[in-house]
Amino acid sequence: MIEMIVVLVIAYLLGSIPSGLIIGKVFYKTDIRQHGSGNLGGTNTFRTLGVKAGLTVTLADILKGTLAAALPNLFAIDLHPLIPGVLAVLGHTYPIFAGFRGGKAVATSGGVLLFYAPFLFITLLASFFVSLYITKYVSLSSMIAGGVAVLYVLTTGFFQGWDIPLLIVVSLLASFVIYRHRANINRIINKTEPKIKWL
Ligand code: G3P
C-alpha cells in the first residue's frame, strides 16, 4: 500500500516538472507563460522560442507520461500503469512546481499511451499531423486526436475485446483535453486562434 502511494506521488511530481518553464528560463531567459497563449506546453514553447526548444519540451512532456506509466514495472508493484499515468497528466496540468498552472494534457497523455498502447499512440500521432496539415490549428488537431483515441479504443474493443481501463482513461483524458482547450475553442470560433505557418 505504502509503495503504491509512493509511486502515485512520484508520478504526480514527475508530471509536475515544468519542462517549458525550465528550458525557457535556463536557456532563453524567457518565461513562456508571459508570451503567446501563456500555456506551459510544447506548442507555446515552439511559438515563443522556436523549433529546438519546442521539440525538446514536447519530447520531455511525452517522456514524463511514459516514465510515469512505467513506474509500476520499475518498482515491481501490482498497479495498473494507467493510474500513475493519469497522475502524471494531472501533475503536468496542475504542477506543484509552477503554481498549479501547467499545460493542456496533450503530450503527457500521449506519453502514457506510448507506454501502454504504442500502436494507438502512433495512430494518434498520424491523425494529429493529418489534421494539422488540413486545419493548421495545433489545438484543434490535439482535440481531434483525443476523439480519434476514443474511436480507436471503441473499435478495437468491439472487434478484439474490451480494455475497460483504457476505455475509461482515454474517454476521461479526451474530455479533459477538450476542457483544457476552452480558450482555444473560443478563439477558433472567433477566428483569432493562430494557425501554424510551416506545414
Ligand atoms: O498542446 C497544447 C496545444 O494543443 C495548444 O497550445 O499554446 O496553442 O494553447 P496553445
From TrEMBL:
It catalyses: an acyl phosphate + sn-glycerol 3-phosphate = a 1-acyl-sn-glycero-3-phosphate + phosphate. Its main location: membrane. It is found in: Cell membrane. GO terms for molecular function: glycerol-3-phosphate O-acyltransferase activity. It comes from the Bacteria. Its EC number is 2.3.1.275. Catalyzes the transfer of an acyl group from acyl-phosphate (acyl-PO(4)) to glycerol-3-phosphate (G3P) to form lysophosphatidic acid (LPA). This enzyme utilizes acyl-phosphate as fatty acyl donor, but not acyl-CoA or acyl-ACP. Belongs to the PlsY family. Probably interacts with PlsX. This is Glycerol-3-phosphate acyltransferase. It comes from Neobacillus sedimentimangrovi. The lineage of its organism: Bacteria, Bacillati, Bacillota, Bacilli, Bacillales. The gene is plsY.
